[in-house]
Fold this sequence. Notes:
2 domains; six-stranded mixed beta sheet; Beta Polymerase, domain 2
Amino acid sequence: MDIEKVTRGFQNRMPLYEQLEEEALFILKQALDQLNIKVHSVPSRVKRLDSFLNKFQRKQLENPKELENPFEEIRDVVGLRVVCLFLSDIALIGKLIRNSFSILTEDDKVEATEVSSFGYMSVHFIATMKTEYAGPRYDQISKIPFEIQVRTIAMDAWANVSHHLDYKSDRDVPGDLKRDFYALSGLFYVADKHFEMFYRSRMQSQERMTELFEAATPEAKAQQEINLDSLSAYLHTKFPDRKHADSGRLSQLVNELTNAGYKTIGEIEQIVETASDALRQYEEDYPPIPNGTFADVGVVRISASIVNEQFVRWTIDFKETDMWTEVEKEEEIKQEIRRYSRYRQMLNNKDKK
C-alpha cells in the first residue's frame, strides 16, 4: 500500500478515531469515578498523520509482507493513558479496564527487572469496545482497536524527561552519561516505592486514629495532637450525623487551629462543648443551604469564633486576601466579630448563672 493511499485512508478515518477517543475516554473516566479511584490525569490523543506514516514506514521496513492493512495492524492510533498516584493503583485500574473493555492484548512492563528501564514502565492494553455497546453510535467504531497505558506519576515524569532528552531507551545514552542516567532513573524508582510506603503508613495512621477515638479513654483522645488524621477521626466520632468535610477543607481547619495556638484534640473538645448552646442558636439564625445544618468543620470553626474573639482575626488572616487593602481587611474582621458578639454574650450570661 503506497503512502498516498495510506494518507487518504487515514484522513477519511479521522472522524471515527476522534469519536472512538471520546467514547473510550468517557467510559474510562466514568468507571474511575464510580469506583472512586483518584488519579492524577487521564490524557488521550489520536496519532497525527505524520506519526502514523512514520510508524507505517518503520513496520514496512521491518517486515514488508506483514503489513497488509495498516489501519488494522497499527493498533495505537487512538491512545489513552491513566496516570495514577501509587503503585498499588495499577492493579486496581487494570481490573477496571478489563471490566470496561474487550482486551485483545496486555503487556505488563512494570515488572521490568532493569531499573534503567523505569521510565518506560507501564501496563499496556490493546482493547476494543465491548459488544454491549451497540447501535448506530458504536457500529463504526466498535471493532477499531485502541491502546490504554497505566503508569504512576513518577513513571510518567521520568518518561517525559527522558523523552525530551531524546533518549528512547538506555541504549541511546552515551557511555559517559549512563551513570547519571541510571542514577536519575533510580531516584524516580525509589520515589515511587516511598510514595507507596508513605501511602500505606498514612492509611495505617488513619485506622489507628479511628480505633483510638472509638475505644480509648477521653483522656487519651484529648492528648492527641491536632493533625489531619486525628481531627478527622475526632469529627467523625463527635458528629456522626453531620456532613463530613473533604480533606481540603479539613486541612484548612487544621492550619487555622494550629496557627491560633491550639495544639490538642482536648482543646477542640472544650471549645465545642463550651459553645454548644450558642452554636445551636447560631445555626437557627444562619441556617446553611441546602439542609440547614453545618458540616463538622463548620461547627468547630464557628464554635472557636464564638469562644475566642481572636480566632476570627486568625481565620481571616489565613484566607487568600491579597486583593484586600488593610482597611478592607480590618472592616471584615470587625463585621465578623460583631456577628459573633451576641453568641459570645450567651456564654458570658451562662457563666454568671
